UniProtKB/TrEMBL annotation:
<keyword id="KW-0547">Nucleotide-binding</keyword>
<feature type="domain" description="Aspartate/glutamate/uridylate kinase">
    <location>
        <begin position="2"/>
        <end position="281"/>
    </location>
</feature>
<keyword id="KW-0067">ATP-binding</keyword>
<comment type="pathway">
    <text>Amino-acid biosynthesis; L-threonine biosynthesis; L-threonine from L-aspartate: step 1/5.</text>
</comment>
<dbReference type="InterPro" id="IPR045865">
    <property type="entry name" value="ACT-like_dom_sf"/>
</dbReference>
<dbReference type="GO" id="GO:0016301">
    <property type="term" value="F:kinase activity"/>
</dbReference>
<dbReference type="InterPro" id="IPR001341">
    <property type="entry name" value="Asp_kinase"/>
</dbReference>
<protein>
    <recommendedName>
        <fullName>Aspartokinase</fullName>
        <ecNumber>2.7.2.4</ecNumber>
    </recommendedName>
</protein>
<keyword id="KW-0418">Kinase</keyword>
<comment type="similarity">
    <text>Belongs to the aspartokinase family.</text>
</comment>
<comment type="pathway">
    <text>Amino-acid biosynthesis; L-methionine biosynthesis via de novo pathway; L-homoserine from L-aspartate: step 1/3.</text>
</comment>
<dbReference type="InterPro" id="IPR001048">
    <property type="entry name" value="Asp/Glu/Uridylate_kinase"/>
</dbReference>
<dbReference type="Pfam" id="PF00696">
    <property type="entry name" value="AA_kinase"/>
</dbReference>
<keyword id="KW-0028">Amino-acid biosynthesis</keyword>
<keyword id="KW-0808">Transferase</keyword>
<dbReference type="InterPro" id="IPR036393">
    <property type="entry name" value="AceGlu_kinase-like_sf"/>
</dbReference>
<dbReference type="InterPro" id="IPR042199">
    <property type="entry name" value="AsparK_Bifunc_asparK/hSer_DH"/>
</dbReference>
Length: 421
C-alpha cells in the first residue's frame, strides 16, 4: 500500500487535475490513499473570507466566497461535463452551509470560525478529484478525513489524537482500502470529538499524508510537487540550485525546522518513526527520479543546504537596570512568547540582553512589545532575512553576506545563521 499527496500547486485547474489523474491511473486497482490539498491558492482566499466575516464585513466575505464558488464550479463542470452531477450537488451543499455560516454573528474566538470556513478548500478539491477519477474509470472512494482523524480543539493548530485516529485507521480505513483499492481524502483538516472541524496548521497536508502512512503502515509516501525533487535551496529564491537524489530524515527535519518551505516540519517524524521512505516527485514530469528521504548517513555527500526566511524581525530585549539576563528572566521572556504563540527562529544571549529573530506579524509584535515593556526595554529591526546554511563551506560564506548589513551571526561546525538587512 502506498500514500500519495497532491498539493495545491498540482491542482490549479482543469489541465492540472487531468494530469493528476494521469499520475494516479497506473496505480488503479492497487491499494492507494490519495491525500489532496485545496486547489491552488484557495486556502489564502478562504482566509480572507474568514477575516472579513469576523470583522462583520459580511458583504465582502460573501463576495469573496462567491468568487471561490464560481471558480470551483467552473472547474467541476468542465471536468465532469454534467451540471447535475451528484458531486456538483454536494459542492453546492457545502457552499450553502458556508453562506449560511456567514449570516451568523460570531460569538466564539476567531480561530474556531477560521477552521470551519477554511476547511472548505480541501473538501471541495477532494470531491472534484474523486468524481473526475470515477468518471475516467479510476474507481475510488471519497473519505471524509474528519470521520477518522480526531484532534483536540486547538483550532488552527490542532493536535492529533493518535490512539483514536490509529484505531480508526485500522477499523475503518483499512477495510475501505481493501474494498475499494483507492481512497481519496483531504489533507490539513480533522475533527474534534464533538464533530467540530479543525485544521492542522498551514501547509499541513503533507503532515496528514504522513499520518496516514504511519498509521496504515504503508510502504511509502510520495509527495508530488512542482519541483524535480528536493533541492539544496528554494529554486524560486536562488539560482543554480542542486537537486538532491537521496537524503536522510535528519537533514530534512533540520531544513524544515530552519524554515525550508518545501515539506511541512511535522511530516518527517511519523515516517522516521516507522522507517518509511518519503519520495518527493515532480508532477510536471513523473519520469524524473525525484528525491528519496530515508534512514542512512548521506550528509557527507550533501551540498550546502540553504534556507532563507524573509520578513524577519530582530528583537533585542534588555534589562533596564543593568541586571544580568539570567535563567529566571529568560524563562519569563519565553513564557511571554509562548503565551502569545510566537515562535522564535533564533536566539542569542548577552550579559544584559537577549536577542531573538521572529516572523513579522504586525498585530502580534505590537502585543509582544507592549508585554515585554513592563520589565525590559526593547529594540527592534524589521525587514530582515534569516539565512541558514548547513554543511557550509567557510570560503564561500562571504558571497552570501557581501553588500549586506550583518546584524547577527551564529556559527557551529555544521550550521551557520545570519540575520541580514
Ligand atoms: N529546498 C527546496 N527544494 C525544492 N523546493 C523548495 C525548496 N525550498 C522551498 N521550495 C519550494 O517548494 C515549492 C513546492 O512546495 P509547495 O508550493 O508548498 O507545494 P504544494 O502546494 O504542492 O504543497 C517549490 O515550488 C519551491 O519553490
Ligand atoms: N491548503 C492548505 C494545506 C496545504 O498543505 O496546502 P499545500 O499542500 O498546497 O501546501 C494550505 O494552503 O495551507
Amino acid at each position: 500500500m502506498k500514500v500519495f499527496k497532491f498539493g495545491g500547486a498540482s491542482l490549479t485547474g482543469i489541465d492540472q487535475i487531468r494530469n493528476v489523474a494521469g499520475i494516479i491511473r497506473p496505480f488503479s486497482g492497487t491499494e492507494l490513499v490519495v491525500v489532496v490539498s485545496a486547489i491552488g491558492q484557495t486556502t489564502n482566499e478562504l482566509e480572507k473570507v474568514a477575516i472579513h466575516y469576523y470583522r462583520r464585513q459580511r458583504e465582502t466575505a460573501a463576495r469573496l466566497l462567491q468568487n471561490i464558488k464560481q471558480s470551483h464550479l467552473e472547474i467541476a463542470e468542465a471536468l465532469l461535463r454534467d451540471p447535475e452531477h451528484a458531486a456538483i450537488e454536494c459542492m453546492r451543499r457545502f457552499f450553502t452551509e458556508a453562506e449560511w455560516r456567514l449570516g451568523e454573528k460570531p460569538y466564539l474566538p476567531f480561530d474556531y470560525y477560521y477552521d470551519q470556513l477554511v476547511s472548505l478548500g480541501e473538501l471541495l478539491s477532494s470531491i472534484i478529484v474523486s468524481a473526475y477519477l470515477k468518471d475516467e474509470g479510476i474507481g475510488n472512494e471519497w473519505l471524509d478525513v474528519r470521520s477518522v482523524l480526531r484532534t483536540d480543539a486547538t483550532y488552527r493548530d490542532a493536535q492529533v489524537d493518535w490512539p483514536y485516529s490509529s484505531q480508526q485507521m485500522t477499523e475503518k480505513v483499512l477495510p475501505l482500502l481493501r474494498q475499494h483499492g483507492l481512497l481519496l481524502t483531504q489533507g490539513f483538516i480533522g475533527s474534534t470529538a464533538e464533530g467540530h472541524t479543525t485544521t492542522l496548521g498551514r501547509e499541513g497536508s503533507d503532515y496528514t499524508a504522513a499520518l496516514f502512512t504511519n498509521m496504515l503502515n504503508a510502504e511509502s509516501l510520495t509527495i508530488w510537487k512542482d519541483v524535480e525533487g528536493l533541492k539544496n535551496a528554494d529554486p524560486k529564491l536562488f539560482a543554480d540550485t542542486i537537486s538532491i537524489r537521496e537524503i536522510n530524515y535528519r537533514e530534512v527535519i533540520e531544513m524544515a525546522y530552519y524554515g525550508a518551505r518545501v515539506i511541512h516540519p511535522k511530516t518527517i517524524k511519523p515516517l522516521q518513526n516507522k522507517k518509511i521512505p518519503l519520495y518527493v516527485k515532480c508532477f510536471l514530469d513523473p519520469e524524473l527520479p525525484g528525491t528519496v528521504i530515508h534512514e542512512g548517513d548521506h550528509s557527507r555527500q550533501l551540498p550546502p543546504l540553504i534556507v532563507l526566511k524573509q520578513k524577519q524581525v530582530l528583537l533585542t530585549i534588555t534589562s533596564r537596570d543593568f541586571s544580568f539576563i539570567t535563567e529566571d528572566k529568560i524563562s519569563d521572556i519565553y513564557d511571554i512568547f509562548h503565551g502569545l504563540n510566537i515562535h522564535i527562529n533564533l536566539t542569542q544571549n548577552g550579559a544584559i540582553s537577549f536577542s531573538c529573530c521572529i516572523e513579522h506579524d504586525g498585530e502580534k509584535i505590537e502585543r509582544l512589545i507592549k508585554t515585554l515593556h513592563r520589565d525590559f526595554s526593547v529594540n527592534y529591526h524589521e525587514g530582515l532575512e534569516l539565512l541558514t546554511i548547513r554543511h557550509y563551506q567557510p570560503e564561500l560564506l562571504e558571497s552570501f553576506t557581501a553588500g549586506r548589513t550583518l546584524l547577527l551571526e551564529q556559527r557551529a561546525p555544521q550550521t551557520v545563521q545570519f540575520v541580514l538587512k
